[in-house]
Amino acid sequence: MSSAGARALLPPRQQSTSLGRRGAATAAGLALGSLADLLLADPRRGHPVAGFGQAAGALERRTWRDHRAAGVAYAAVCVGTAAAVGTAGQRLTAGRPLARTALTAAATWAVLGGTSLGRAATTMEQHLAAGDLAAARAHLPTLAGRDPRGLDEPALVRATVESVAENTSDAAVAPLFWGAVAGLPGLLAYRAANTLDAMVGYRSARHLRFGWAAARLDDVLNWLPARTTAALTVLTAPLVGASPAGAWRAWQRDGAAHPSPNAGRCEAALAGALGVRLGGRNAYGERVEERPGLGDGQPPVRGDIRRAVRLSRAVWTAAAVLATAARLARRG
């Protein structure tokens, strides 16, 4: 008999207790995984996301076709497999709260990247403080996909601050959001979709059609988390000496001007909170974009990287608390 069938035979009070324990175990896993990321950052070796990326890359090389249908099938297989692994994990740990907590904690730690994002931005600040533009340019690909060649310090600073703003949602708030909504399958499926977007979602000649499905899926999955990130930027701004009013004003006024339906909300809110102006010319290999201005004031300077990292940490820590509380309030 399945676990669901066996549970249906229990009296209502015991059913409620069983579901409550599952919710508490998932909530505890989200909290412990978030704490692990806060203290340890990403696993240094054998990172599961890197392993997924390698497998997805191998599959892409075998299945690539220059049309959308092939990309839809590719995204469905990759994300569906990740969701199936999460579902299997939940079934295996049904009725075993300690195992559910441990598995959820490990998955949460693996899919979160909030602390690593902050460390990468801090490394950029250190290179710039040392006047080592060559090292700073070489380091930029760990933060942003734009072409670092020829970028001066102001351009590198702006790229870093914009990356911190956007990836606070992608690397931390969004996986926590989907972990709260759907537990293990939500954590793994979101990270799979976001990884595919980074791999094939850019508008290169090869992936313009093949990567369409991955890019659109990532947009859909990040729609609510990006706006949650902007809202949390407003709410946590006073904790780091930033402006909640500025964050709200820039979010509402400038967020929709960005070409991304999601990144603009995060970048505008952070720009307004810090009192800086983001946007401008970005080069992605042969493709060049002129981004609209977000926020008021002057472009960010080196010291604003540290302020952005502090605000990012406050935002995603608040998201972890909310995700844990939301899952704890659920019955399953």
Automatic annotation (TrEMBL):
Keyword tRNA-binding: no
Residue spans crossing the bilayer: none
Keywords recorded for this protein, A-Z: Cell membrane, Cobalamin biosynthesis, Membrane, Transmembrane, Transmembrane helix
Main location: membrane
A GO CC annotation given for this chain: plasma membrane
Stretch list, region Disordered: 1-21
GO biological process per UniProt: cobalamin biosynthetic process
Pathway: Cofactor biosynthesis; adenosylcobalamin biosynthesis
Membrane topology of this protein: Multi-pass membrane protein
Localization per Swiss-Prot or TrEMBL: Cell membrane
Role: Converts cobyric acid to cobinamide by the addition of aminopropanol on the F carboxylic group.
Family per record: Belongs to the CobD/CbiB family.
Name of protein: Cobalamin biosynthesis protein CobD
Record organism: Modestobacter italicus (strain DSM 44449 / CECT 9708 / BC 501)
